[in-house]
Structure of Flavodoxin reductases (Ferredoxin-NADPH reductases) family 1:
Amino acid sequence: MFTGQEADNIVLIGGGVGITPMMSITRALTDMEWKGEIYFIVACRDPEHFIFASELKRLQEQHSNLHLHVAMSRIEKEIEGYHRGRISKELLAQWVPDIASQRIHICGAPPMMDSTKEMLKELNVPAESLFSENFGSQKKLRAQQAKPKQNADAPKKEIQANGTQTNGIVTFETSGKSTELLPDETILEASERVDVDIDSSCRTGMCGICVVKLLSGEVSMEVEDGLDPEEKAAGMILACQAQSTGNVSVEA
């Protein structure tokens, strides 16, 4: 966590719900009337997925040292105040003066953070100036540590040997792997047990990072906010929310 003592200025880069910890830092700094420059960079899909938008705009009006820049990847045309497209190396250099000498905090999905770190490296930002947090990483690690040993030759059953009832089988077509779906288990959690890589971030159905295509079967989702109408029509689902009582296959 940044307290204001560690550097003269701060760059905060958040993707999707990854802006949440950045908001905590920004609130603390503006509350104390911190004098350093705050460069807040947001990457999201569209205005509907820009959380804290109203609060950030209000804080920017009240604090001249808060500089807000937003890149939206899924808007069809330019919207005033927002950049159409993804964050790029050129944008980072344009938005943050002397970026190579700044302290930078990043939070978001692993692919977003990896690509951002690579861009910052190309901009000569030293590794010791980068600080990152990965939403969902601890839950994923726990799921991998708890992964049961499986016999690949054992037949799939509706009732496991220990008496635990399963809801069906999920097949990850791209990876060529299948596993039982345990009661109340999501497709994302099942994927982590068998080392199938599905990008994820918030795990609440809001950010849309874990979108995958449902190839067969039916699923239920408690939250679908991370899906566009077009994605729903195309058979896309949120792996972090999708559960099933039968056999399903997904593109992953």
Notes: The chain has two domains: 10-133, 138-250. Residues 10-133 form a domain with the Rossmann fold fold (CATH 3.40.50.80). DSSP finds seven helices and eleven strands in the chain. The first strand starts at residue 10 and ends at 15.
